[in-house]
Design goal:
Structural class: mainly alpha
Largest sheet: 2 strands, antiparallel
CATH topology: ABC transporter involved in vitamin B12 uptake, BtuC
Radius of gyration: 21 Å
Order of helices and strands: HHHHHHHEEHHHHHHH
Number of domains: 1
Shape: globular
Helix content: over 70%
Strand order of the largest sheet: 1-2
């Protein structure tokens, strides 16, 4: 516990010093990584811990983003108000969609989430008077907190960093809780968990709603960061991108989605500046991970650690043998 807390504090200090070290470009890149890391962590509740593969998670991200933007324009630019409403509406949407999705499983669950997501995308794309339609929602005021305005990149970064650590800590506590352990049990063997008297559909439904709400939180932060939101951020390709982040990083771990988001965002940003075939390269990286490294970046790290630990133990054993 103490070791985990110390690592957490070191990460907070290291990222907190980023504005004093990084350029404006790298600050924006790091901010985007943290936002999408929250988004990936929300999907990981379903994919990694509950075993529900969704291809419609962008719907909650988009609803959260548009809600934050519209609230800032028409009601209040206060970050607490707009963020709370974004999370609430995304969670409500997840609660409604979840009522239908919980009736199916496997491939049918994936396709049903995709269908609902495309319905949300279609509504946003065609509701020109509300969302701006294909032109997107622009002219979003800067987020405020009382008289303070998040008026530049550094302030936005610290807002995103604060929310990221709160979300990460809460999700870590959640997956370690009895509810989180039941979700892991459902992923491993749902029939056995059912036989123990648990209402598995209720637990899966709860995971779906929580994942939707946190996805909306990421969307709200994305609106503060960009000051603009487009229908493409609700399209199924966004759901595919965040699913790739979870799988490449390591589904079912807390650190994996964060590392996956960092890798994918960095690849997209760096590779796209050199070639228009960046999607081909990202796709190739995904294929390599699925075939050769199914446990993701975290799995690779654990394998290296075990190997180094094994070599160290062998070395110590040889020394003891020589002394004897």
């Amino acid at each position: 516990m103490k070791n985990t807390l110390s690592k957490f504090l070191i990460a907070i200090v290291a990222l907190g010093l980023a504005p004093f070290i990084l350029s404006l470009f790298h600050m924006n890149l790091l901010t985007e990584i943290l936002i999408l890391a929250i988004f990936a962590l929300s999907l990981n509740i379903l994919v990694g811990f509950t075993g529900l593969v969704s291809l419609g998670h962008a719907a909650f991200f988009g609803v959260g983003a548009y809600t934050a933007g519209l609230v800032a324009q028409h009601i209040s630019s206060n970050v607490i108000v707009s963020m709370a409403l974004a999370v609430a509406l995304s969670a409500i949407l997840a609660a409604v969609i979840g009522l239908f999705c919980m009736k199916v499983s496997g491939f049918y669950f994936l396709m049903l989430t995709l269908a609902f997501s495309q319905m949300i995308y279609s509504f946003i794309y065609q509701s020109t008077s509300i969302t701006g339609g294909s032109n997107g929602l622009s002219g979003i005021p800067r987020a405020t907190l009382g008289d303070f305005q998040f008026s530049n990149t550094v302030f936005i970064f610290y807002l995103v960093l604060f929310v990221f650590f709160i979300a990460y800590a809460c999700l870590r506590i959640f997956v370690k809780s009895p509810i989180g352990q039941v979700l892991i049990g459902i992923r491993e063997n749902e029939m056995r968990v059912k036989s123990m008297g648990y209402h598995t559909n209720l637990y899966k439904y709860l995971a779906f709603v929580i994942a939707g709400g946190i996805g909306g939180l990421a969307g709200a932060l994305y609106t503060y960061f960009n000051g603009f939101i487009a229908p493409s951020d609700v399209y199924w390709t966004m759901s595919g991108a965040v699913l790739i982040m979870v799988i490449i990083g390591g589904a079912g771990t807390m650190l994996g989605p964060v590392l996956g988001a960092a890798l994918i965002v960095s690849l997209e940003t760096i590779v796209s500046s050199y070639t228009d075939l960046w999607m081909l390269i990202v796709g190739s990286v995904f294929i390599i991970f699925v075939i050769y490294f199914p446990k993701g970046i975290v799995g690779i790290g654990e394998s290296i650690f075990r190997k180094l630990k094994g070599n160290k133990q062998q070395s110590e054993q040889r020394k003891k043998t020589r002394v004897a």
